[in-house]
Amino acid sequence: MAKPASNPPSKQKSLFSFFSKKPATTSSSTSAAAASSSASSSNANKKNAASAAALSSSNNNAAKKPPSQEVRTGTSKTQLKLLSKITIGTKLAVLWPDDNEFYPCIVHAHRPNNRGNDPGHVYEIHYDDGEQETVDLATERFRIIGGKKRSSGGGADGEKKKSAAEEEVSSSSKKRRRIMEESEEDEMEFDIDESSEDDDGDDSGSEYKAGGGGDSMDDESLDADADEKEDDWLVDSDDEEGEAPKKKKPVVKETLTITRVGGGKNNSKTPSVSPTPMKSTHTSNAKAMDFSGFASSSNNSKPSAATAASSTAKTPKPTTITQSQSSPLPTQKLDNKLSAAITIPKPIKDQVNPSGSHTHNHLKFFTTHRKDMNRNPVGHPDYSPRTLHVDYTELGRIQENGKVSPAQQQWWEIKAQYADTVLLFKTGKFYEMFHDDADVGVSVLGFVYMKGKAAHAGFPEAAYGTMLNKLVDAGYTVARVEQTETPAALVERKKSIARGGKKPQVVCREVCALVSKGTRTFCYLENVNLLEKGGVDSGPLVAIKEILIEDDEESGDDDDGEDKGTKAMYEYGVTIVDAITGVVTLGQFADDVLRSRMLTLLASFGPSQVLYEGGQNGASKTLLAFLKSACTPTTVIECINPSERFPKSTAIKSDVRRMLDRVNTDIQPWDGQEAVKELHRRRYYPRSTRNSESEGIGRWPEILRSCIEGGATLALSSFGAALYFLQRSLVDAEILSMGIVKAYAPPNTSMAVSDASVSASSNADASNNASTQLQVMYDKEARREEGVDLVEQQEPAVINFPASAVDDLFAAEANIDHMALDGTTLSNLEILHNITSGAQQGSLLSKIDATQSPHGSRLLRAWLLRPLFRKVDIDRRADVVEELAGGSAAVAMSEARDLLKKTGDIERLLSRVHSMGGTKAGSGDGVGAATNDYHPDERAVLYETDKHTKRKVGDFSKLLNGLRAAADIPELFENANIQSPMLAKIVRTTDEGGCFPSGMKDKLDWFFDNFDLQKAAKGEFEPTPGMDDEYDAACAEIQDIKRQLEEYKDEMCSSYLQPRSTARSAWKYINIKEDSKDKYLIELPVTVDVPDEFFVKAKRGKGAKQVNKYRTPFVEQLVQDLERAIDIKSAGKAAGMKLVFARFDSMRSMWMATSHATAMLDSLGSLAQLAVQPGFSRPQIVDCLSSAKPGIEVIQGRHPCVDTTHSGGSFIPNDLVLGGKFGSTDDACADDNASSEETSVLLLTGPNMGGKSTLLRQTCLITILAQIGSYVPAEQCALTPVDRIFTRLGASDRILCGQSTFFVELAETAAAVRGATRRSLVIMDELGRGTSTFDGTAIASATVKHLVERSRCLTLFATHYHSLVEDWKNEPSIRIGHMECVVDDDNDDESERKNNITFLYTLGDGPCPNSFGVNVARLAGLPDDVLERAKRVSSLFEQEMNGDTNQHKIIPSTAEKSVDDISKLFMGDGVNGGGLKRVWSSLQ
Q1: Looking at residue 1397, what is its pLDDT?
Q2: Whole-structure pTM value
Q3: How far apart are the first and last CA of the chain?
Q4: What is the secondary structure of 915-973 as a DSSP string?
Q5: Helix, strand, coil % in the chain, rounded to nearest 5
Q6: What was the pLDDT predicted at 438?
Q7: What is the distance between the alpha carbons of residues 427 and 441, in angstroms, rounded to a whole number?
Q8: Going by C-beta distance under 8 Å and a sequence separation of 6 or more, which residues neighbour residue 838?
Q9: Of all residues in the chain, what percent carry a pLDDT higher than 90?
């Protein structure tokens, strides 16, 4: 007999018991193998109690000879032996042929015949579901499922003593057994590997043997004996008790060869064929958790004897499967030119199989011949990776008994609808991962496979939050599949099905959540600590609908070829869903060929997941490439096809299924009208009095209503896709019922591209009106969040544009209310994230964000993305900052910051309480989405309820305490002498004309008085009187029943029991707890005489000390009433918290107002913290009249994010003056070195690394800070508000979009040239360096000319083209400057100092004579010989350019003059030879 494996039994063996309901069929061809398998792993394998008990009665026979044919009559010794064991009380399982299922029963009585001495085999049997039947077992197929415990070892001589290894296996299994026993999971459903195989396909001869049939049974019905089940559930059903040990046959390792088309990185020695599409093959450094003993077995086990034998056995000829190029492996990017034959070994039973060799790797329908549920193969235009066509015929062939068990079928049915997700399949207290999901568990979660042919891993429910976070961070979508039915409920459901009907074999399971990066709400099942610490990607979900605007070539609008690239090329509809706060944002806008506005949207929101439309008429390939280039590497980009199959609910009740399912299975997610109909059906929003679906939206959110009525078809189309995705993820009602819908319109930094330019669209007028309306609503909402309208409401001025172009320009300026920052500027200036790592650290936001609350931080971020433009708005906010930075308000603010820190994330917590309140939709006037009864989570069987309750109460406690702290803030400012009207508005209550709701403390006190947070966290919460009438009535009834029971005791002891004294003193009610069984049994000594109505239910003790436990009809009736009242009380107690949450949620408008007030105060306080830092001053904002020239003056300005230089020295400040002069009494902004002319362009030269880019960036950042109302890092600053900032910095390509570095450089330049106005600020760094010197110089010169003469904007232009400086040195509107440095003399004898350069980082006047590139090359470490040669070539080239050689120096300005002179000489009838000779001489 082979020695058992020494390593502890893997979790696979124990966890597979939940999925194993197969009988242990044996056959002549497999009995030897079964014996070998059982001999080597008798302790490591498991088996359900019924099979174990049954095998004990027949395994010896099975070991001696092959099973006989099915016996119904005759004198078969096997039959007679089994029939002779049947007595009254024997547990059987009888086959019902119509159902093809064995149903458990118990022998109730024997009905002998009248044929002499033959007693016959007719018995009366009672089924577990209550039915009775009289049958002749000699003619029936049945199984004996009762019996003695089976031993752990086998052998002809009886049970042998366990070896040390077997003891280890047994002890290591105890913990798992206890866990499963506590879980009350009685199912044993799913065993892919261990069902034996019958060669002839006939189950004959095995029906009389327990576990011999091919049909599965559930332990809910076969619950024979708890003690037997506890010991036997780990035992493999293939182990046969009493079987004689046989020589183990060599295990032949079969292999399967397929042809893999394509490559793909695979670190495993065995090729892995993972079937799930849309899953990235991430690797993980995750270490095994503390519960790894539950999750997996150790992978350091030695090869078994079977494995060793297989190495010498003859390997069967492998089967070759050729994969067609039209059906690529789903998880690999395939190169059709590359084809490799890969041998995939078949899995070995009872061993840990390597990745790529499990059962699912050999399923054609799962790998090489994959199709969706519509039978579309991979590569088909309509193929959807979200569904899977399951070939149950192929699936059955790989099962050893040729059948798919009910639990296996349940798993595959769910997987077919969620093929692109990782299923966490709940069994008891554990989430199991099978097949390709187990592959993910191994690669991402650090698990190892469990033993068996099927890939299998898992983890306990308590670890759900941790594991989910790892999977979602790795980019996977996770489906949480919960049991929504208990085993007891399953038994009752079976009883309700009439005989002949198909009875369910497994408990109901439903998908309760589909979690991805964009739909993660951080519910009570998850750990929110990671979110609060910023450890997860919390970006929103963005759905994008794109259409191409066809250019009408015959319209003749392309008169100006220069503006051809500025036309609107695309139009977009976007829906942005913030699942954490429940905010939905809609937008629709036109965009140019570079997608500038889309880039701004992505940079502003930083989405974690993006949805785009697939299909031939969907998103363009350039958009997909653009998304991959513009989004972060961790962003999930997902395709939604024009037609998708919506998953069907597996709920038991039909009305619940109707609510969860869509009307049609195949839906059109991008159809806006279909989305509106679904909104009506699900009733997410309150209905108006009108019933028409096309109307009835009067109470819907204003933005959504405007999109429907205004014809924003693209916005509604994207909303439809988002709705489909949210519904599929089962968070639709939770998010949409919040009723928060906002508008968004990205800033249009290109004057030539406007929403009004969408004239080629088929629905141009409606589209234009919808886009304009959304823009207006966005501006209105933004002004409310900015707080600029707190003091006085201002409607946008209605201007009748004059005919004059100049007057028209000034009129347009009057309508601007904020600065526009496009995506390029946000990235180049590192406003939200640093360029190096993409993290917030080192950005401008990180420098100024000293907020104390998350919602305050979000508001400050919104301010930074949308700086103010109007002087009055900027000054109003700056006044608040100044007052909070000093004086009495500063003292109050310092105390308020402590309270703000206690508020927490009010917006997120309000969303959580709304979800926990039970009101999943806002209508409240009907069924369905108006309640949460339909949601699968309400039916889920969870075991960590104490932890979940604690989290729920914890969130609610944070919110209550946070709001109480917020309510104390107005009191802090009561005695402060506030001068700013805006600050007074923010910190006052509404009854004083402020923002904080009045009476908030009284509202909060009710919740503190009626909701004991400490008791609730322990699960001891009880609704207070008056909160729930049904609960109050149930409590009163319970007390009344208890009173009646005491009165009955007194009556019986006084009048009916003898002796009375003994009866009165001994009478005792037992089992009086609410969760007790057989409640209120009466305990009395046997010596007490009782009336006849007292019947004994149980007894204890013997003789005179015997105590009987009685029940009477009166007490029984009271107990029934009591249990009914307790059920009502328990339900009310469970719903009590929901009632509190729902009541709190009904006051959400008050709490939201508090959130906004605290967010504004927190943001302003953060700016005040910045203002008190050394070196910061309040900037002077100057109005720019039509006759004035915009300008900026900075004295001793510094970069706000750079405190020290790269060498560790202090940052060196600089002065900068551009544009118009600002008069002041002390002439503080005067610059003695500046020219008397008002220069608007600084042409900046200087050495590499001399600080040019830093000066450019800091000028922009100072401007942004000034216009959000903040102090700036300068001694003094004055500026006119800037409407837009354009940046051309750095060097990067967009390789995914096919855009080179030079193309990106020119695209950024084009945006500035097209969109800059006189009120704009443009910075350009080394324009033209991506091409040849001459082309670069020409482009740079032409750009400067355009900015000076046409745009007339403020410009900082850094360049190394000295000829460009020479060309424009006499232009009055251009100032020439350079970053100063000191270079050691070449004649210095000290070689280490030769040509060394010292950067001064100071702005000086005039051009820099040299860029000193060779000096920087020396700092970079280039070899000396390279440096010397570079220096010589540079000197020669410089001499040529300066005219020191025989060649004449030519610069663009002189070249243009020479061309003009030569052209004039050739004008007229003849050629002016003398003039031509003079020109030629001058050029020499």
Answers
A1: 74
A2: 0.74
A3: 105
A4: HHTS--SS--SSSSTTSSTTSGGGT---S-HHHHHHHHHHHHHHHHHHHHHHHTHHHHT
A5: 40, 15, 45
A6: 95
A7: 17
A8: 632
A9: 36
Strands (E), 1347-1455: 1354-1358, 1374-1383, 1397-1405
The confidence band for 1069, taking pLDDT boundaries of 50, 70 and 90, is very high
pLDDT in tens, 185-242: 333 344 444 333 333 333 333 233 333 333 333 333 333 333 333 333 222 333 333 3
pLDDT at 809: 64
Is the CB of residue 425 less than 8 Å from the CB of residue 432? Answer: yes
Report CA Rg, the chain: 40
Long-range CB pairs of 79-88, under 8 A, 24+ apart, other chains included: 79/138, 79/208, 82/57, 82/58, 82/144, 82/208, 82/209, 83/121, 83/137, 83/138, 85/57, 85/144, 86/121, 86/123, 86/137, 86/144
Phi then psi dihedrals of residue 1064, to 5 deg: -65, -40
Looking only at the bridges linking them, the beta strands covering 1241-1245 and 1276-1279 are unpaired
Give the 3-state secondary structure of residue 239.
coil
Q: Judge whether residue 1365 has pLDDT over 60.
A: yes
pLDDT band for 325, please (50, 70, 90 cuts): very low
DSSP-assigned letter for residue 46? B
DSSP string, 1259-1292: HHHHHHHHHTT--BSSSEEEEPPPSEEEEE-S--
Nearest to 240 by CA among 7, 403, 9, 27: 27
Tens digits of residue pLDDT in 1273-1287: 999 999 999 999 998
- What backbone phi and psi angles, to 5 degrees, belong to 1040? -65, -40
- Go through 1392-1416 and write b for each residue having 16 or more CB atoms within 10 A of its CB, e for each that does not: eeebebebebbbbeebbebbbebbb
Token output for 37: 């398998």
Task: Kindly write down the DSSP assignment for every residue of 1051-1072, as one continuous string.
Answer: HHHHHTSBSHHHHHHH-EEE--
Residue 248 tokens read as 């183990």
Bridge-based pairing of strands 1107-1111 and 1081-1085 is antiparallel
Question: Do 1115 and 1048 touch, CB atoms closer than 8 A?
Answer: yes
What average pLDDT does the structure give for the chain? 75
Alpha-helical (H) ranges within 337-460 are 392-397, 406-417, 436-444
DSSP E strand stretches across 1041-1190: 1068-1070, 1081-1085, 1095-1100, 1107-1111, 1180-1181
- 846-860, 1394-1408, 1431-1445: which has the minimum mean pLDDT? 1431-1445
Q: Binning pLDDT at 50, 70 and 90, where does residue 1467 land?
A: low
Do 260 and 340 form a contact (C-beta atoms < 8 A)? yes
Query: Is omega for the bond preceding 250 within 30 degrees of 0, making it cis?
Result: no
Running DSSP on this structure, what letter comes out for residue 1347?
I
**What confidence tens digit (pLDDT) does each residue in 22-46 have?**
333 333 333 333 333 333 333 333 3
For residues 361 and 379, give the distance between their C-alpha atoms in angstroms, rounded to a whole number: 20
**Euclidean distance between CA atoms 795 and 808, whole angstroms:** 20
- Sheet of 1180-1181: strands edge to edge? 1180-1181, 1276-1279, 1191-1197, 1214-1219
> What's the pLDDT at 1436?
79
C-alpha dihedral over 1361, 1365, 1367, 1369, to 10 degrees?
180
- What distance in Å separates the CA atoms of residue 426 and residue 1255, rounded to the nearest whole number? 59
**Closest by CA position to 549, among listed 565, 564, 569:** 569
Other CB atoms within 10 A of residue 1290 CB: 15
106-144 CB burial, b ≥16 within 10 A, e <16: bbeeeeeeeeeeeeebbbebebbbeeebebebeebbbbb
Whose CA is closest to 1239, among 1341, 1377, 1425? 1377
What average pLDDT does the segment 437-447 reach? 95
Contact assessment for residue 86 and residue 140, using Cβ atoms and an 8 Å cutoff: no
Q: Which is higher by pLDDT, 1237 or 1212?
A: 1212
Distance between CA 369 and CA 451 in Å, rounded?
Answer: 27
Better pLDDT: 766 or 857: 857
Helix axis angle for 945-967 and 888-903, nearest 10°, is 170
